[in-house]
Amino acid sequence: MSQTYPKILIADDDPEDLELMEEHILSVEPMAKLDKFLDGLSACEYLRSRSDAELPSLIVLDYNMPGLTGSQVLMTLKNGSRYTPIPKIILSSSSTEKFIRECLDNGASEYIVKPDNMEEIHNLAKRLVSLAEERH
Question: What pTM did the predictor assign?
Answer without folding.
Answer: 0.95
